[in-house]
């Protein structure tokens, strides 16, 4: 290595030579390199003295490569291109990237959106694309940096960190309580209009499962109104259309501002929950790490 280094010309001269040879002008080379024309001329002179050959024929407004200069230009251009490509392939890229965050509809609408202005205020230079879908395939497809998903924490090929443990309790609008029969006991729920979550997922808890787990008898013909997604169901509850099952931490905003209340302090814990899911073996970018830490902080 020392022998090779001893045969190399001063490295600072090569950039000046490559730019001058490519642009055929010391002036334009100085502008590209953000140095003075005199500095470019000095670097070329040092290189010519080192090599012992003339590299340029100087004219009044233009320079031309000599035969030796043409041969050397080819070698220097190839070497610098190789160095640039190699450096680019291993360099840590600190330029801002658009992130893609997946989330199911419930988590995106009820948990993420009320909190996301805080992220934007703290990190205004980080752009985030949000994919909201109840299809796990959409939320975990290639190009998605991380996802907020409901389940038991088992996604093969992915790392899952628990954000919110599932705890489910009845909620309704205050106006609903004022205009309907009182609710003094959990058994009273079956006498009311129940807003029910109905979908393709077996692990979504509906009123039948909740009542069964709480050992509350019910009939199959009890009054109910069905929805295939939780955000729409919660909107119906806020407008006083019945009693819904609410998920802890997903309804913080509605409970805090009084849109919803818990008629009774009774809940069901399932052992499932919402998780931050990311692909195993894939290193997050600096911006993605900021987003991940913020999500963990908010949970």
From TrEMBL:
Select a single GO molecular function from the record's annotations and give it: DNA-binding transcription factor activity
* InterPro entries from the UniProt entry: LysR-type_TF_proteobact-type, LysR_HTH_N, LysR_subst-bd, WH-like_DNA-bd_sf, WH_DNA-bd_sf
Q: Which residues form the HTH lysR-type domain?
A: 11-66
CDD domains associated with the record:
PBP2_GcdR_TrpI_HvrB_AmpR_like (cd08432)
Short name of one Pfam family for this protein? LysR_substrate
Q: Which domain of life is it from?
A: Bacteria
What GO terms describe the biological role, i.e. biological process, of this protein? DNA-templated transcription
- Report if keyword Plastid is assigned: no
Q: Which UniProt keywords apply?
A: DNA-binding, Transcription, Transcription regulation
Q: Which family does it belong to?
A: Belongs to the LysR transcriptional regulatory family.
The identity of this protein, by name, is Glycine cleavage system transcriptional activator
Specify the species: Roseovarius aestuarii
Q: Provide the gene name from the record.
A: gcvA_24
